[in-house]
Amino acid sequence: MKKFLAMLLVVLMALALVACQPKPTEPDQPAQSAEPAQSDEPVQTDEPVEPTATPEPVVRPEAFEGLDDEEVYEKVLGKYNELLQASKALENTIDQRFMMQAQAEAYLLNSGVMIPTTTQGGAYAITRIAYRTVPYVQWGNDDDRFYGLAISGDKEFLTKEEREEMKALWEKAAAGEGTYDPIAYLEGKGHTINRDYTLTFSTAPATLDWLNTSMQSDTEITVNTVDGLVQYDNLGNMNPALAESWDISDDGLTYTFHIRKGVKWYTSEGKEYAELTAKDFESGFHHMLDTDSGLDWLVEGVIVGVSEYLDGGSYDDVGYKAIDDYTLEVTLCNPTSYFMTMLTYSIFLPICDSFYQAHGGVFGKDAYQEAIAGNAYTFGKADDVASQVYCGPFLVRKLQSASEILLVKNENYYNIDKVNLNSIKWVFDDGSNLPALYEDACNNVYPGISLSSSLLDLAKADGNFDKYSYISDTTSTTYFGGLAVNRRTFVLENGGCASLKDDDQKIDTQLAMLNQNFRLALQYAFDKETFNAVRRGNDLALTCLRNMYTHPEFVKLENDCTDADGHTFPAGTFYGEMVQYYVEQLGMPIDIHDGVNGWYRPDAAKAALEQAKAELGDAVNWPVHIEVVYYSGSETITNESQAYKSVIEACLGSENVVVDLIEATTVDDYYASGYRAPDGEHADYDMFFGSGWGPDYGDPSTYLDTFLGNGAGYMTKVIALF
Fold this sequence. Notes:
The chain contains 22 helices and 25 strands. By secondary structure, the chain is α+β, with helices and mostly antiparallel strands. Among the domains are: 3-21 and 73-119 and 476-719, Roll (Dipeptide-binding Protein, domain 3); 212-390, Dipeptide-binding Protein, Domain 1 (Dipeptide-binding Protein, domain 1). Helix 17 (528-536) packs antiparallel against helix 20 (635-652).
């Protein structure tokens, strides 16, 4: 699961502009449950309605206690899970599968537990980086591979006209008409070429073990140091990488990959360590299953034997095997139309088997847990660049967590002619001084910068805006706000981000959060245009708004498709249009298209609130307090949080809902409250809009599976479950 992203992280990454599409989390602790509301039917209308009484009153518990995760999940997402599971049985009828996934997504949105907010891009930017020079694809890790970047070495940024000319050349090449050579273009325009790429980071990698993480702050670094079986190019075509070729059996169940010969592993200093073989892919996959890092659910039910192995079975029965030094065989449970697209995600990367074992690595879930508890296990340590070996275009030469990360070109890389850069350097920046960052970009310390609202005046005053600015492309990554439907943490272990609530107020919020109409009232009251204007400015406040979880044009129907109620979607219908139809069938007044304030419905918010109050009766004391943690070191995040408080209280009335802003004085505390919380039990907030998800492969399930129950879904922790 790829890209669980922190909003602050991506903000800082965008500030030192990247030419690609930079994208980006457990055990149940059941407790005595309070009696939930009996009626969970929402009111979805633009017109006020008369409240109706619930058939059975909600019972207020005598004391606050956490609830049982499974019971809460069934209440808030049971129908969603039912439809999603049913869609998995439709693998051989892809169009029907997409249609049922759209129905499931409509129920996810209708639950009100989350609200999509924005995507990446859609901002003014200035840059020296040529248009689309890294792998171009909506999913996987390939768009973080920077080796192909073409960067002007001149102090001046690329002009609007130059960017448009490159875009036209790229579009022709992507359509099969001619070639796209961005370096030749830049040189033809008189530009020098910068072979060293510098950008910023706010959170250093926690590990150099790319199979023991799903955090983009980790994989963005490491994916530049290791290749996979296949790789997308900058035109969006899948090409051989460490697999020179592959065969697929007639029944679609067996994939045989022929591994490239002569590829070597190298130390951080560039010394040859070992030859890469098919065994390294098998060992990597085996290790990934052992780590319990939240990656294995992606391949459960996809690759033979995975579920059984995770339940204590033998790896001998797992269908991911090295047949000989240069042959890898993968056996699937069922034909899986999107399997090849999965291979560009980090879970399928190799590790050097001999190096892993030489650094204390073992295989087997129990044996691995014992090993990492001891001093002999030294593999992939983030504080030691020599604790990993690399087979990709770059080597990790330096990693200082609050200072600098440096990658240098691997001079022995098998495909070195494709590498345009000599180095990649990340410089630590916490986002507290944007004008200084802008000045650095103007002085060519960084190749570009995203012009947040606080920088627009600077860029307009010095002429850079008029001459160089453009609106960056949006991506398939979706950021969202999650409501903690089973909050149990109210202060961090270090005492930070402490809640302001007393126990009675905790009970009030808990009961309200269990009510669907209350959740929808909050979501319909969320004026995302005002919220986003803090970051984008008023003129671009709509450009990056997203209103559904999956990218609305992620897939489309190949054939006409008819649902169980007789409604037919014609061939060519995009996934988002099906979701729009089904949310309307559920009575939701939202617009799921990108670039519109599609959830802000004040009348519907007030009507849903009145219905919630009728359903909750005397069990809840009003106002309900909703806590939002913000990082005070970031002016943008601080102002966004204040905007959220303002729009919610203005719409619903502070006599009904009060948004309390809880200060995180450090980046670490901000992340610990949400993004890096190990599970739902440790979520320290009521509303969190600091995370997002980028897809791992080319099927809507790459988004939707993140909200599976019983701890299987990676993003349920954002709603304080599992």
